[in-house]
Fold:
Amino acid sequence: MNSEEEFYDAVTGFDSDNSSGDFSEANHKVAEMLDLDPHQSNRSGEHNGETEIQENGIKKHRTSLPAPMFSRSDFSVWSILKKCIGLELSKITMPIVFNEPLSFLQRITEYMEHIYLINKACSHADPLERMQAVAAFAVSAVASQWERTGKPFNPLLGETYELTREDLGFRFISEQVSHHPPISAFYSEGLNKDFVFHGSIYPKLKFWGKSIEAEPRGTITLELLKHNEAYTWTNPTCCVHNVIIGKLWLEQYGTVEIVNHSTGDKCVLNFKPCGLFGKELHRVEGYIQDKNRKKLCVIYGKWTECLWCTDPTTYETYKKNEKRGGEQKKLKPSEDVIKSENDEADDMPEVQDTVQFIPGSKLLWRINCRPPNSSQMYNFTSFAVSLNELEKGMEAILAPTDCRLRPDIRNMENGNMDVASKEKERLEEKQRAARKERAKDEVEWHTRWFHQGTNPYTGTSDWLYSGGYFDRNFSDCPDIY
Structure:
């Protein structure tokens, strides 16, 4: 179905309601700008050196943003969220200060940061090792969300994002195919024709008083072409705590099932909620089983740190010994812990010791180090920092709907918050007017690069790539900016 559903009017704007003094902290102004990489520029038309460029115009990737993150301390989200308890948050828009200067389409692209794991899966002859690599890739895909409490911009209907990384061996295209419900479709392929990675994401957001929960919907599919294998899964639920008062922190929880539709093997990963004492914070545990439900290996670690695997017998022996030793140290909830349940803020549990290594385990994945100035750049990874850079010549190559050309995101990245807020409101009004015009003329919205169909492996509804984007015929792209 290509028709656009009802557009819900949203609360917009950069101004905050500071009347709720209990929910705002002292204002901390940003004192200085981040240093710019002298070898990069964020604006089209500026270019240092005559270097050979890749297909989408980038040779060397920047290492910092043009301006630091704006302080959120004097803005109250409560004035907006207090009316939205239990509601679907895609129907409202937060003030821009709570955003990060990336579109959700660019956030999806961060799945590709650890693409070496796909390459590793392609290279393995053993199907168990392939599943281990795919499981590590599925966990790594959510690792960039660690400490990322800024909200990505909601993509406009018809918005796109492309990324070609010859150094990493892939190209990627995504499109916002529906506005309400918000659905983002993506497709990526290896430049060596060794894999295809695609899916559609419908993040259902809900506000529960002190936290915002993002329930993932939509199927993710990875095809290893050399092995004629297809794997499917969905992401865990993400929850951001203390959206009203206190320090923001997030956790991932829920069960992720990765199915190899060729062999019948399955990987079940349990992303554990933090629990009362925070002992399980960020922990992931699971196993791989064959089509006869025989456990082949156990996987354990943290999605914020690393992932290991070992054989089931070794794991069970270790856990029994650990439990035997832990029974001597059981604690009753202290008065402080009981009291904290009634506090206004859900304090982030103290991060426990690093993942306990079980002798004989094999390392599957370890998270990349973040830039030293990451905390001033929305806690971006190095990969995320590069996603919105716009170099000379790119505008002539990119589709006119590409996220890099969005003026609100560009101005926010450059530190022009007032302009960014006004541009955001203008774009939303432009989208609203276009919807009304289509309704008046009884014209349905038609997606450009994806079409609704059925996932060939799960049989569920999915958005499939129609092809043709990289032929670069953009003459019929909509004017959304």
